[in-house]
Structures are given as C-alpha cells and as structure tokens.
Amino acid sequence: MFVSFEGCEGVGKSTQLRLLKEYLEKTGQRAVYVREPGSTEISEQIRRVILDTANTAMTDMTEALLYAASRAQLVREVIKPALERGELIICDRYIDSSVAYQGYGREMGAELIKRINAPAVDGCMPDLTVFIDLSPEHSWRTYRTEDRLEQESNEFFEKVYKGFINEIGTSDGRIVPIKPDFDKNVTSAKIISVMRERGIIK
Fold this sequence. Notes:
Helices cover 50% and strands 11% of the residues. The protein has 7 helices and 5 strands.
C-alpha cells in the first residue's frame, strides 16, 4: 500500500508523520518512509537545485520538470520495488504537491502538471492521500526556512491551498482532508483511524 501526506507550509505535517512512524513502530508494523523531492542520491541532488535561493532565474517549467525528474527517480528506485515486495510506503509529498504548487500556485494548470508527471509516476498513485487541511492564513508557521519555495508570497500559498481543495473533489475519495486539532495527538488519532478504515494499517 502507498500513502502520501500533503498540506501547505506550517500545518504540522512533519509532526504527524513522526507520530505515525512512532505508532507503527510501537505496534510492530513496518513501513518505508520517503520524502519528495529526495530520498535517493539523485533526487536529493535535484532537491538542492530546486530549493537553492541562488536559483532566482529558474523558470516555472524548469521547476515543474525538476520535480517530475526527482519523482521519476524515486518511483523507479524506491517506491515500485517496495510495492512489489508488498511493503507499506509513507511518502512526505507526492504528485499532488506538484499539481497544487506548480499547477495552481504557478498557474501552469493542473492538467499540464499531471501530463508532465504521468511518465514520472508510471502508474504508481497513492492508495490514500492524507491532506492536512489548514489554510495559510491559519498556519502555525512562525518562521520561513531558507529555501526558494518558502520565500514565496502569501498570495502564492493561498493559491496553493485552493489548488489542494479543488483536487480533493476530483480524487474519487483518494485525498482525505483532516482538520488538524491544536492537540497534535488528536490529529494523529484521526489519521490513524482513517488508515485503519482503509485497511492500510492495524
């Protein structure tokens, strides 16, 4: 099974991934954990290029293609082999981030981004996508990290959020929005409950 986690900046996604990992380890359930872009030697090199603040001349199309290239490497090197072995994959961001950030945030169009990524994902779509549903306006982010995407405007992140929301309705139930609670453990319990209902974990 394949589960991806999505959300805008500062919604507690990293915390929820950590809590899920702790739960799975405590209950003796194994999983492979990956992040996008990254998690292979080549994909991590591409990540550094994408997020480097010195790359101000990068075009939107270049950015979109670099994300797809990183994804193609991860799918072929890690995700497909793990799924073929019958393992559970937990991925921090996947194609929905490209659709939201480049398709809506960069206004390149969701369908164009999906076409660009079709050969990259090679049929490997998540069985479940957990979307931590918190708008940028209500984000818990108190600072911005030093990467190129984080330096974008509030208007950009609002478009990204609206993109995620739009995609929920076209996902045939794959993308499940989870409203985060101030108590991180309450949010974690919601996520675990959804994953149990889908038969992904115990």
